[in-house]
Amino acid sequence: MRIKWLCFGVAVVSLTMAVCLQGCSFTREAKKSSLSWQEEAVTRARILSRVKWTPVAATMPNRRGGYFEQGTEYTGVPYSSVKAVGRFIGFDIHLKTFLAAVENPRSVLYTENLSGKVSNAAAYYGTVCSAFTGYALQCANPYRSSHHGPEFRNGVILVEPQSAQAAEPGNVIYTPPAKPGGGSHVELVTEVERTGDRVTAVRVEESAPPTTRNTLRSASDFNSHISSRNRKLYRITDFNAWRGQNKAESFLFPNYKEDSATPVINRVLLLDRGDWVPYYRDQPVKFNVMDKDSKGVKSLVIKRGATVVEQIAVQDRGVIERFLPVCGDYTAHCVMSDGSLSRACEFSVCDLAFSLPTGAPMRGKPWEITFTASNLSVIVVHLMNPKPPYERHSIWLTEQDRHRGKVTVPAGLLREAGLIQVWVVAENKYGRLTKEQEIVVE
Predict the structure, then answer these.
(1) What is the pLDDT along the chain (442 residues), one digit of tens a residue?
(2) Where in the chain are the domains?
(3) How far apart, in whole angstroms, are the C-alpha atoms of residue 343 and residue 278?
(4) What is the Cα–Cα distance from 297 to 234, expressed in whole angstroms?
(5) Residue 405 burial (CB count, 10 A)
(6) Which CATH class is domain 269-350?
(7) Which architecture does CATH list for 356-441?
(8) Please, what's the b/e burial string for 338-373 (b: 16 or more CB within 10 A of its CB; e: otherwise)?
(9) Are 404 and 322 in contact (CB under 8 A)?
(10) Residue 186 CA, distance from chain mean position
């Protein structure tokens, strides 16, 4: 496996994987109290933008069209607006889950294609501009790109002057749609170079097809970038007010400690969704016995907790598929020909469902969403208008809501009548699962 980490421009390569120096930025988690949120934003952006990975098959779809090339090293996680169908890297899965899936030629990265099924999507795992900035800015869930500014958030202002001389790390750049109903974009300033008191260059990082971009512009080029397309340079002045309840530290994801650590990828066995990942109870789990080092495999052992669920004789390399109807945390390992045990894959089996009112709810009256979850904790309900102006509201659940199995949509929360997308998001230590339904609100 060839995975490298680049820490603030310094790459250290070991036998098969490059890892960060012990003293580089990712080890600063233990010193986070000494870092400003702006410094942490830069560090965390680079977890996603500097990771290197190499496809092991030629069938991973590329948002630009075609496929990522087998055997070619890429920098930064892939761009794919997976919506509620796939999984966002960093928010729905660990970065190491994506990296494990990269190493499995039978994983969803190579066997699933969201192109034509989900707008602006390609690979089953990916990120987009707003998810990239949301991850860097320590949000529990991404904001829409258009919702980063003062029209939608507290604690953020328009930078004056709109030029390189006023830019600071942690600033965001918003690009409005080129035409009504079109897509918008958001970028993150990660570095400002100075000579004396004058800014000479500004580095901007972003998620864009095919992977993340890292652009160092001279001051004049940065000014041209800002002045084109009616872009806006924003500064967050009150970090907690800007995030509101949407704080990563209040939830299990994003998990920056796990994402910044160098993962050890299983060479004998991987799951179709990688490793360290949740499944729905009605989804098959596909175990790919790869035995990359040709040591020989005698059996596959599936365990739920300490209980052996099944031990399956293995004759050769290949995929073994099983439905696991009991929710819980599982492991799977192989017994090798010499009697030793392979590294174990970890995953969970979960259930999530919710119900909406049978009739069209009224905007001026409260209404309820009921839900059930097994081996998951429901954390938030998103209500979204899929058309401009893309009204979006998040209802963060309390322990009382989880205990009752229902959440109330307050009267007057939704301003616009019409079709609303409802997402219910739940998490456990392995990741997040999302269920989506639609309802017409009057």
Answers:
(1) 434 333 333 333 333 333 343 334 444 444 444 679 999 999 999 999 999 999 999 999 999 999 999 999 999 999 999 999 999 999 999 999 999 999 999 999 999 999 999 999 999 999 999 999 999 999 999 999 999 999 999 999 999 999 999 999 999 999 999 888 788 999 999 999 999 999 999 999 999 999 999 999 999 999 999 999 999 999 999 999 999 999 999 999 999 999 999 999 999 999 999 999 999 999 999 999 999 999 999 999 999 999 999 999 999 999 999 999 999 999 999 999 999 999 999 999 999 999 999 999 999 999 999 999 999 999 999 999 988 778 899 999 999 999 999 999 999 999 989 999 999 999 999 999 999 999 999 9
(2) 25-127+249-260, 132-248, 269-350, 356-441
(3) 18
(4) 56
(5) 13
(6) mainly beta
(7) Sandwich (2.60)
(8) eeeebebbbbbbbbbebebeeeebebeeebebebeb
(9) no
(10) 16
Closest CA relative to residue 191, chosen from 214, 211, 220, 224: 214
Q: What is the pTM of this model?
A: 0.91
How crowded is the C-beta side of 249, counted as CA atoms within 13 Å? Answer: 8
